[in-house]
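Escalated from tier 1: heme C holo job.
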Amino acid sequence: MAAMRAAITALLVGLASVSLPAPVAPDCPRALGSPLSYEALREFVVSNRIRSIDELLPCLPADVRRDFTLVYGSRSPERYSASPSHPRVILFGPDAHLLMAFTGDPGKPFFDRLQLIEFRNEGSRFFFAEASFPGSGPPIFQESPVACTTCHGDDGRPIWDAYDLWPGVYGSSHDLLHPGSRERRYYEAFLARGRHESRYRWLDWTKNSPVPPYHDDIMTWDPDVFPNLRLSKLLARYNAKRIARSIEQSPRYESEKYRIVRGLLGCEPLGVPLNLSDEVSRSLRQSFAAKVRRNRDFGPTQDLDVEYYAGGSARALRVAQLLDVNPDDWSLALEKKAFDFQDGDATLDDFLLTEIFRSLAASRPEIRRFMRVIDEGASKQNALVLDGGASARYRYKGYDAIFTGLGGALLRSQARPACELLQNGNTRNNPAEAATLATAAAEPSPSTEPQADEVPAPDSGNPLQRYCGNCHSGEKPTSTRFPLDDETAMRRLLRSNPRIAHDFMVRVASSGKDRMPPRPPLTEPERTEIQDFIQSLEE
Ligand code: HEC
Ligand code: HEC
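Tier 2 regenerated the structure:
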């Protein structure tokens, strides 16, 4: 049976190069269900006497074969077996909890090797395995091979560059195959021929794009054709769970956790030292420049707004500092001590906040209601309460289902009431920490309900600062912080994301519940003054 399938496969490979027939799925013994686990996969291979990766692939669930990306310039041990015409495949399925990697050049070593990484909720760890298919006999499964730790680390994690540049991966910059670039030429050649051959044809190529699974139009927003971004986002979440587990093991965690979660929420400053911020910005700039060099010959690259992400990285490192934990392997980059922790919207600090908050909420039902499925980064970046349809969550398919599966996220726009509850609950539940909190409580307490006496101080700063600064900027904003007093930063923010500008305009124009400022209502001239100012920043 198995031998016959192999023969059919071989025949198809032969035919494919000539007439490119649609792949005919061999009858798989029994369909593998989704979600797929390593255990189920292994059981399937063993009990059905699967003898090669080519026999296995068509039997994988359809949704698993839909999401993948292709590596032509690998830095793994398989690097000499991967090339533009025969890229290494990283198959990651709907939610990337199970990653499979294999090569596609039958004439090169490693062709018989399937590598797997599985994120396991229990223990919040990545599990590693390798299956080799000698052909002549049954496959050999090696679990937690020591060899993987050389690159993937002792507390193993995937290796994946941060948004928005993945040198060596097709769609290297922005998941975009730039017309005219070398990478584009390679990819077109691969699409014309290679992908119909060998095991590539078992992948799903039906995504809506001339260059699936990537895109070739800078204006496209279809989340389906951003596999590299999607993988980044999903891995960022699992990685944060891994890091959260490791920081919870710090002896300092119990005594510091409320300070950390309150600092990350913005209830109080987290106290990021200036030299740490500088170090992070410098490091981000250097590692981005190194990535640009790696990608130089393949296509143009989009710039990275280092300053935009540096704050988040610095806050994450501050957490490491407070807990005396070594963050050298926190990023997913191959290089140690890379501090690029962002996923295009959110940064590791957002994810850590979510994870720590979740573990606090496990024993604190009253704070659980602040957990909701949102894109943390979107609330930070777009400053929107996320029902308006403008959030980054719409940038990828099945977001809600997937991210609920990952445990949801913290609704940052609810930070203030969460701060108060954390404070009260903390005092009530943990008398040992009451003393620390007494200090915090003595400070003027932020309020969810805007106070009537928070009238703007006339003549101080630009119109936004004057009418909105009381609550949205300064040392301790009572709502989402915006750099209102810094016109350059504000201009960058509004230009980089027109949705923020849009939301500002909508709220200033509104006379409904969402109006800003909440009280007192703006007079018409005041409203015009603010709107003109916002427009001037956007231009
Ligand atoms: C020499 C360094 C090195 C070793 C050793 C290594 N890998 Fe990797 N691995 C990489 C790199 C680099 C990538 C990123 C993609 C690429 O460059 O091909 C990667 C990618 C992967 C991927 C795809 C998901 C991801 O992390 O991007 C899997 C799965 C994987 N490796 C599994 C393993 C397993 C299992 C082992 C041990 C049997 C192993 N690797 C050993 C360097 C290594
Ligand atoms: C008296 C305090 C106060 C003032 C003054 C104020 N806001 Fe707000 N703002 C809030 C509160 C509280 C919220 C959260 C409740 C909500 O989303 O409606 C908020 C939310 C927002 C949001 C959504 C932020 C997010 O993360 O979801 C925007 C945008 C906003 N305000 C803009 C403005 C602008 C523009 C001004 C000045 C014209 C302004 N605000 C003045 C208290 C204030």
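The two ends are 68 Å apart (CA to CA).
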